[in-house]
Structure formats: C-alpha cells, structure tokens
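Title: Request for sanity check on Pirin prediction

Description:
We are preparing a figure and want to confirm that the structure record we downloaded matches what your pipeline produces today. Could someone re-run it with the sequence below and paste the raw structure tokens into this thread? We only need the token string, no images.
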Amino acid sequence: MTKSIIKIEQLQFPWQTQDPFLFCAFHNDSYPKGNGKLGPDASLSGRAIGSDFSGKDGWSMYHGQSVPGFPAHPHAGFETITIAEKGLVDHSDSLGAAGRFGNGDVQWMTAGGGVQHSEMFPLLKDDEENPLLLFQIWLNLPKASKHVPAYFGMLWNEDIPVHEHTDASGSKTKVKVVAGTLGEITRLAPAPDSFAANAQNEIAVLMIDMEPNAEWTLPVASSGANRSLYMYEGSSITIDGERMNNMQVASLHANEATVLKNGDQPARMLLLQGKPIGEPVAKYGPFVMNSQAEIQQLIMNFQRTEFGGWPWPSHSHTHDPKSGRFALHADGRKEIKDQTEA
C-alpha cells in the first residue's frame, strides 16, 4: 500500500464507516413504472412485504406495504444525512415537519433526544421507470449533544456548491460539497447542534464525479481526521498508483495529499471525513447512546412519549402526487422548490 492508503476492502451492507460516522446505507433501486398510487406497477408476490430487502428484479419494498420505503420509526442520539441523487423521498416527522426532496437534494436531520420520521419513495412516473439512488449516512453525536432538540434541515440541489477541476489532459472532476471545506467552498451543517456545525471537527461529505482518465488530488486535512473513500459507479481508479475497484472502500490518511486517477469509464465516489468522537458507542436499532443503561432509559422514554407522537394520517404517509419538491419546517415555514416533480 502507498503512504496515503491504510487499507482497501470490499463494501458490506450497510457500508462500513469510521468514527464519527456509524454507517452508510446505500440504496440503488431500479423501480418500475408507477401504478397510479405511488407504488410499483408490478406484482409483489414472492416478497416479504413489510421487510423486503431482497433486491428482486433490481429493487426492494423495504418496510413499505404498497409504497416502497420506511414507515414511521424513531431515532435518537445521532444524525442522518440523506443524499437523494436520483428519485424522490417523501419525509414526514413527529415535529410536524415534512417534505418531498430528491434528484440531488440532501436532508440533514439531527435526531438528538428523539424524533419519529417516515421516508417513503413515491413512484410518481406512471409512463416510465422510477430509479432511486440514495445514501443515508448516520453521523454520531457526542455525549454532550445526545439529547439536543431534534431538527430537520434541507440542502437543495441547486444551492449545493460544486467544485470543478480540469486536469492537464483536459479531463474534468466535479465535486459536490455537501459538508466540509474545498478550495473557497465552506459548508457547515444546516442543523444548529450538528457535530458538523463546528468546523474544528473537520466533517466532510463530498460527492466526486470523474470523467474517464481524469486526475484529481484530494486536499489535505489534519492527521486527527478519519477519511474513507467509497466507489459506487465506474470500473476502477488508482489511488497514488494503487488500484481500487468499484464497490470498494479505501481508508486513507487525511493528512496526505492523495492523487486519484480514474480509469476508462466515468466514476462516482463518496468521501466521508471527520475527527473521531472517541466515546463508547451503545446501539440498539435506531438508538445510539454511550451505554446500555442509557439505551434502556431511552426506550422507556419513547414508550412513554413516542417522541411527541405521530401527527400524520398514516405511518406510511405520502404527499400529493401533484406536488413538486417542498419542505414544511417545524416552525411552519414552507419552501416550495417547484410545482411539479423535478
């Protein structure tokens, strides 16, 4: 291995991450045409409806019964960063916040002391397929922030800055800066109590697109930061001359300038970086605390309060099929990005 590379390994499901991240769920579903009711125009026989992760015919229903997705469920003690590169997500939560986002948008939610939310994947197109490409990254919270108020924030695709680089051969690399610093771009999390809201934590979430044969050098961060590079589309790249194939992850030294050289196909990668929290991690499903005793207390709290209850008509709530991308925030503020599906 070169001096930049700690190790290269095959990706698991969910994707393995380094502290301060907990994991990354990668969803790449080739959903068929819609059936006019936001579900797939296809037979659901042979699927374990309610818990379908089969990937049958190139897609899954997950926990959805008629619309694919994840009906209402709780979270506490961490954050979710949901990057919807293709397709749409209908979000609803116990704060009263809601939204439809996708096709490059990012939702950033700090669960903190507790929130319920649902994430459904409405298949709006009845005359063509409805592909979905989505990442949900779980970012931990330190003990001091485990019980901060829950918060829902949006980063709209057209507002997310993109860094462009053209190498000596004329080949281009585009880097979408969801979080972190790159050149003159600095992006902090939209959630006020996020671990990424403090620049000293060096959180970076970058979406990297490289043309065939493009070359680009990752910027240097501090030696205290963990850095992982995930390849999810393309054939292979070289990292300082060492080959990494599609659906592999490289753990890198963040304080080394790392040269990426793409192969003969377009390549897409995700980079996650951050300083480790370095605290004990106790996990139970959707709850992440520092000890099992805290987990038990959190479960009892959820049983008692349901984190504010569920204000929507259904645990699999979806929005008006005619609606475009929008966000309804917990304070009643509403953003409308377009009137029809993007």
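Thanks, this matches our download. The chain has two domains: 21-159+284-309, 162-274.
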